[in-house]
Every structure is written in C-alpha cells, then in structure tokens.
C-alpha cells in the first residue's frame, strides 16, 4: 500500500520506514531534517518504492497533493525533548500541536478516509495512581508541556475522526530505545562517559524507574495493532507500547558502564528537583499496561534491562 511517514529521518520514523519497505509498501518520507538525519534513511534510499520529501509541517507546501493516493499516514514528526518545555514551551506547541493540525487539515482536504497512525507518549498520563497504567485510565493530567502537547494532538485526531471521516490509531509509547537514537538517558550517559570515563553524573536521585522497549519490538507492535485496526470498524483506538517491566536510572547507569568495560567510575547523583526528578516535568515512575496489545499476539522480545543492554551495544558500535 502507499504510505506516508512524517519524521521519517528520525529515530523511530526511520526504523518504521525500513519495516514498511521490507513488506514492500510504497513509502513517502517527510522530514525537515532539523533533528533527523539522512544517514538514518541510507537503506531506504536504495529501494525503488521510496521517496523523500524535505518539508516542515509547521509551514507545509503542497502537502495535500503529496497525500494523494496515500492510504495510511504515520505521523511521527515531533520535538521529543521533554526538558525543552521548561525553558521554551512554545516549541512543543509549534512542533507538536501546530504540525499535527496542519497535517490533519491536509488529510481532511485530500479526502479518501485515510488512516492516521500517531506516535503519542506515556507522558500524557502524567503521574497516574494506577500502575501498570491501562489505556482507559483517566482523567489525564500531564506534568510537562511535551505531554500536554501530545494529549492535545490525541484530542485533535479524535475530533477529526468523528467529524471528518479520518480514522485515528494512537500509540502511547514508553521509552523507546535502540540504534539511531540520539537523545534519552542511554545516549546521554554514553556522551558523558566518552567525555570523562572516570565520572558519570545522573540527573535526579537515581530512583526514577521506567519501562524501556527496544525499537524492533516497538515497530512490530505498531504494525500488528495497525493490521487489527484496519480490519475493524473503529474510528479511533489507543494502544500502549512498552516493556511490561521497569528499570531504574541507577541500574541503567551501571549497564552502560559495564558495556563500556569501565571500572571504578564515580557515579554522582545531582539530587534533582521536585522530589528527586531529573528536571521539572520528569515523570518519576512510569509503568504501562500492555495487555491490550498482547491480546493481539504481540510479545516483546526484550525486557527493559535487555533493551538497555542491546541499545548500549548498538550505540557504542557506531560511536566516534
């Protein structure tokens, strides 16, 4: 089928593009390359069914025409840095909400009842009182502008699904890790240890505990849920994707140190803010229920610790 992927040169988007091309879909990749890299699409550019369009969704050009004949839109373009919201909240408004609105409007005008697949985030839940947290948990009170902007995008997609005939499939992702990732705690620890192998600073009190899923399991879950959604008559649906367990930041630090082969590293905790968080808006404990996705036959190949180990190996293998 003919698909379009926004944020295609980014971490998750590029892995999704590779998976779609493996199943011989025709893929139009859209990215403004502000953080994405063409090297992430090196394999894709060698495929005959691939086309790249450099475009900023904040100011799209000819997007409606590009969507002609597209049946599924994977919307993965976003600013993923939660911390930027503390100093520049408008970034998440423009990069997440405005970009999503522009895409929805172009989709509405293009017609044809397209399916829009959206990469949301576990941070829309804020700090839920129920762990593991199911998709139907509420009310939702995000504690970061990033989480708020993603929740706003979910609401926009739902409204377009019920008003304009667009079908929406939303994925609330846990911490997705793997090759090509350039942000997050694992990449951050690797950068710090390369700069100073004798010392590692951990933001917060180190007890932050979250779920981590490898990109291969994440993309597999997306495609399994999409197949089920296409066969259904639902206008909109939501799935969590994450590993069913958790790992602490202190444990991640030790895993990365071990993969480096380092000894006697001085691990320092900053103590953090607001009860030991790494930064304002940091959700200290995240644990998603993935029972809904498992009922479709999906099972992650790696647990959280294994995903961290594999990711550290993958990043170190290509690090300069």
Keywords:
globular, alpha/beta, about 40% helix, 10 helices, 13 strands, single chain, two-stranded parallel sheet, 7-stranded parallel β-sheet, Rossmann fold, 2 domains, UDP-galactose 4-epimerase, domain 1, about 325 residues
Please, could you describe this protein's structure?
With 320 residues, the protein is α/β, with parallel strands linked by helices. 38% of the residues lie in helices and 18% in strands. The chain has ten helices and 13 strands. The chain has helices at residues 11-22, 63-66, 84-87, 90-110, 145-164, 185-195, 215-231, 249-260, 291-294, 304-318, and strands spanning 2-6, 26-31, 50-54, 72-75, 115-121, 167-173, 175-177, 199-202, 209-210, 212-214, 236-241, 247-248, 266-269. Strands 3-2-1-4-5-6-11 form a seven-stranded parallel beta sheet, with helices on both faces. Helix 1 packs across helix 7 and helix 8 packs across helix 10 (304-318). The model has no long low-confidence stretch (mean pLDDT 95).
């Amino acid at each position: 089928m003919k698909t379009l992927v926004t944020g295609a040169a980014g971490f998750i988007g590029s892995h999704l593009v590779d998976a779609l091309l493996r199943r011989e879909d025709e893929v139009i990749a859209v990215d403004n390359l502000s953080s994405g890299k063409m090297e992430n699409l090196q394999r894709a550019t060698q495929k005959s069914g691939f086309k790249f369009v450099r475009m900023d969704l904040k100011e799209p050009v000819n997007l409606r025409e590009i969507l002609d004949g597209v049946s599924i839109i994977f919307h993965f373009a976003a600013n993923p840095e939660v911390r930027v919201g503390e100093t520049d909240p408008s970034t998440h408004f423009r990069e997440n909400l405005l970009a999503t609105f522009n895409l929805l409007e172009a989709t509405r005008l293009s017609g044809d009842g397209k399916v829009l697949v959206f990469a949301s985030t576990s941070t829309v839940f804020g700090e839920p009182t129920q762990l593991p947290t199911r998709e139907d948990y509420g009310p939702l009170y995000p504690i970061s502008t990033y989480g708020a902007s993603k929740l706003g995008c979910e609401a926009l997609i739902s409204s377009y699904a019920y008003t304009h005939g667009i079908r929406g499939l939303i994925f609330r992702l846990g911490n997705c890790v793997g090759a090509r990732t350039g942000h997050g705690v694992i990449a951050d620890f690797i950068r710090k240890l390369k700069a100073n192998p004798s010392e590692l600073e951990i933001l917060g009190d180190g007890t932050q505990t979250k779920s981590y899923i490898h990109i291969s399991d994440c993309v597999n879950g997306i495609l399994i849920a999409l197949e089920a959604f296409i066969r259904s008559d639902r206008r909109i649906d939501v799935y969590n994707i994450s590993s069913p367990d958790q790992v602490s930041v202190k444990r991640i630090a030790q895993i990365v140190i071990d993969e480096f082969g380092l000894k006697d590293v001085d691990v320092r905790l900053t103590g953090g803010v607001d009860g030991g968080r790494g930064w304002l808006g940091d959700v200290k404990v995240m644990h998603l229920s993935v029972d809904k996705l498992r009922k479709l036959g999906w099972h992650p190949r790696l647990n959280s610790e294994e995903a961290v180990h594999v990711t550290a190996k993958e990043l170190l293998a290509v690090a300069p």
